[in-house]
Amino acid sequence: MRFLFLLALAMGSVSTSPTFAATSLDRIVAVVNDGVILQSELDQALEEGRRQLMERGLPRPTESVLRTQVLERLVLTRVQTQRAHDVGIRVDDRELNETLTSIAARQGLSLQAFAQARHPGGQDYAAVREQVRDEILIGRLRSREVEGRVLVTDKDIELYLANQGTLEQSEFRVSHILVAVPDGASSEVRARAREQASRLLKRLRAGEDFAALAVAHSDGQQALQGGDLDWRAGSELPELFADAVQKMKPGALSDILENAAGLHLLKLVDRRGGDERKTVTETHAQHILLQPNALRNEEQTRLQARELYDRIQNGEDFGTLAQRLSDDSGSKMSGGDLGWQPVGVFVPEFERALDGLRPGQVGQPFRSAYGWHLVKLLERRSRDATDETRRARARAAIQNRRAAEEYELWLRRLRAEAYVEYPQTSAS
Q: pTM of the full predicted structure?
């Protein structure tokens, strides 16, 4: 690796040869394990960073600061994609094409228009493809090595609800500055980090712009967004942040907060929401499904559904007919009884049929992708699902919070274990 690195530098220095004069060689700006980051990649990422800063109306830091921020993010991306390949995670061209086509279609765009919309005036389509591939790889790697190992118990949920109150129903817009502290850092390194955080907090309290200081000094993932974490439910914030912001008023700054990732400064931009009750509407219905088969074509199936509807209208028992004739194996033996179900469980055609019925009424036969249906509405009710909803939110919040915290620690370990060399600065 070192030989290849020196060879590349040597090739990059050859500018008088006619062979090399015709083609501008791409210079290596960083060696990351057994891979490299090229000047063209850095230039593209720098241009994208400048564009994002301009779109957000954020002040641009000096070129050296911006270069450091952007290059470090490229390094973090590279060590993660390398790790993904090492553990066998792959995204082939067919899958990538399907993903891109699906994303573009949801936005009503062609693939080229999608690429242009994602990076106007910046990366070409090939570069966008590879960036999306990296994002998929990193997402799957995070799911495998971090999120899949996070467990949430019923006891965790009870404790969370007891401590958080209605926090999970409030949303906060928070800005964040991180002064990272390496794993196993000495007391001297920690002291220097605290001094840096103290200087930044002093400047903030003196009225300097939070976003500008975040862009220039934060080690957080959102530094180039001015530290903006966007709107998040209180339950989605790291516990350290949630505890702080619920005591703050909009516009206020936190004291220096510390955890394993380092030292944090927060600004509560705004908050919204609060305690609310959650009511769900549920239906209790019976169902008969008739599907075309080798003995009964589509038209014959439709006619049989119509015949059964007439028989039910003439007094035959819906449940008895369901037990004898329904093709729905899940409900057949219970006389077609579907139990109490909330809105959204059934396919749209089924939902529309239920919506038009009164309790005790049998609807006209209708078609869905599954076949021909007959449905009888037994009852409809509204139920207070506040506690159920809060528990579900709590479980998701704990899962997301722990996964986010574990991911930061995991990423720092991965970065610390990587071999990184910068030819221009000899930094590592």
A: 0.56
